[in-house]
User: Which sequence fits this backbone?
């Protein structure tokens, strides 16, 4: 057992969390974790099914006297975002996540923790094993590739689930019940990389932006954190005026993460080196001051490097178009909801830029809970990139999840939380993509709510779980399952559960 989880409760959940932390499970690399879930179900004598995409559903029978209760699906995704600090040596294809406990926080050693959505995976595995629980029929659903394409949820077959109630375990704040989410689409702009030889008598250099917090491009988009690509673009625009030429530019690596680091390789005229270095030195504290309250560790530098052969740089016209596009594209909140206080309605994340031998590619991520608004912000991105000479393509994306405040499972979740903790839970929508939007389309009439313990810094090495929220989350979830299957719990609802879920009746 990992020392980081010794003495933590509930022990089964933490045991499984530690075990799955040893299994590489980056997006599109879930074969080993899928095999582990299936093997665990087999060891416990539970029926299970694995589809050709790697999704797993495990069926656990009801406990004694509760077989007539409506079936409930508990769902989470198997994959995790693989991010690490630049100086951290870690191979996400084979190395385990190293757990570190600091007071009331559990985090990883220099990498993402994988609590998003390892908490759900560990929860379902613990429920599979725990025979002391009281519940009706359960379906434990594990989906793949949520983080990079929602591939698993998108490919669920019509008969993979029989439940009409689903509790998604991918929310990240204890006491907050999620009943809606944003839809999302990504846009890729591509410039053909026309190049020249670097000017003679030039110094090759790296311009770097690092030290930013980054974070989830939905959940943290309203925090005002720095975007490394946007900051690097501002520095490069200042250097452009000094005759500096760009050879390559790189930043970010996940469409759903705010980029924390970015770097450009440039050619600086030897005679202009001191002027270029002075421009960076003058601009760095200005940019740092702009975000100091939320991102205090921003570091910007220009340093000479060995060219490594004849350096090729972007043609001047292409460089100006690229920098103009990066300057014109907005990053962050586009619009706040007028209906739900504090909810971001529409946003844009400038997510990834990379240089290949043939092209410069820029990926942006657009989110909105309003379908027409996501169309509009995608069009804005396309128009800016097109005006800057790029070829543009926007992916189909995924749907949002429209809130239903009269949901029966929401009413049960609210009532049980109030009974357990003596206060009302928050009911909200989130500006992030949850698989509920897709699952709701796949299985019409599915009654859904999302919940989880408190997790922060997801999609970055700052990811951490507040340890003391996990037993409360666990207790609340078990209370919901018991209530759904309990005659007294059902009769306490304003509308009988049987009226909402065919096939169930009080007795």
Assistant:
């Amino acid at each position: 057992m990992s020392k980081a989880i010794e003495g933590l409760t509930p022990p089964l959940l933490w045991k499984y969390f530690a075990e799955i932390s040893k299994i590489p499970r980056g997006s599109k690399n879930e074969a080993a974790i899928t095999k582990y879930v299936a093997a665990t179900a087999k060891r416990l004598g539970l029926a299970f099914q694995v589809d050709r995409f790697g999704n797993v559903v495990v069926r656990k029978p009801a406990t004694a006297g509760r077989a007539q209760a409506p079936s409930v699906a508990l769902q989470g995704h198997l994959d995790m975002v693989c991010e690490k600090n630049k100086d951290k040596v870690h191979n996400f294809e084979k190395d385990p996540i190293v757990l570190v406990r600091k007071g009331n926080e559990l985090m990883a050693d220099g990498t993402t923790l994988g609590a998003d959505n390892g908490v759900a995976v560990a929860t379902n595995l613990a429920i599979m094993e725990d025979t002391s629980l009281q519940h009706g029929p359960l379906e434990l659903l594990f989906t793949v590739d949520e983080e990079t394409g929602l591939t698993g949820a998108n490919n669920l077959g019509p008969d993979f689930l029989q439940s009409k109630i689903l509790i998604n375990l991918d929310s990240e704040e204890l006491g907050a019940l999620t009943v809606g989410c944003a839809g999302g689409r990504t846009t890729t702009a591509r410039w053909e990389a026309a190049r020249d030889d670097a000017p003679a008598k030039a110094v090759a250099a790296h311009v770097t932006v690092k030290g930013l917090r980054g974070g989830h491009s939905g959940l943290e988009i309203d925090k005002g954190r720095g975007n490394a690509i946007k900051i690097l673009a501002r520095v490069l625009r200042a250097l452009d005026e000094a005759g500096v030429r760009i050879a390559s530019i790189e930043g970010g690596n996940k469409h759903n993460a705010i980029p924390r680091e970015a770097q450009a390789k440039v050619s600086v005229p030897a005679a202009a080196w001191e002027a270029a270095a002075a421009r960076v030195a003058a601009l760095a504290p200005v940019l740092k001051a702009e975000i100091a309250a939320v991102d205090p560790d921003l570091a910007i530098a220009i340093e000479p490097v060995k060219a490594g052969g004849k350096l090729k740089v972007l043609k001047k016209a292409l460089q100006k178009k690229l920098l103009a596009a990066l300057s014109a594209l907005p990053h962050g909140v586009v619009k706040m909801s007028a209906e739900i206080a504090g909810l971001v309605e529409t946003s844009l994340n400038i997510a990834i830029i990379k240089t290949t031998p043939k092209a410069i590619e820029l990926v942006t991520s657009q989110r909105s809970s309003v379908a027409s608004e996501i169309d509009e912000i995608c069009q804005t991105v396309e128009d800016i990139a097109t005006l800057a000479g790029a070829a543009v393509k926007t992916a189909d994306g995924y749907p949002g999840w429209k809130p239903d405040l009269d949901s029966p499972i929401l009413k049960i979740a609210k009532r049980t939380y109030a009974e357990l903790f003596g206060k009302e839970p928050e009911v909200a929508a989130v500006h992030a993509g949850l698989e509920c939007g897709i699952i709701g389309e796949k299985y019409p009439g599915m009654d859904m709510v999302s919940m989880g313990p408190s997790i922060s810094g997801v999609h970055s090495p700052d990811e951490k779980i507040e340890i003391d929220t996990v037993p409360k989350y666990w207790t609340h979830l078990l209370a919901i399952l018991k209530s759904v299957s309990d005659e007294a719990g059902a009769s306490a609802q304003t509308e009988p559960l049987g009226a909402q879920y065919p096939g169930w009746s009080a007795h």
About this structure: Residues 184 and 367 are 4 Å apart (CA to CA). The mean pLDDT is 93. Residues 193-357 form a domain with the Alpha-Beta Plaits fold (CATH 3.30.70.360).
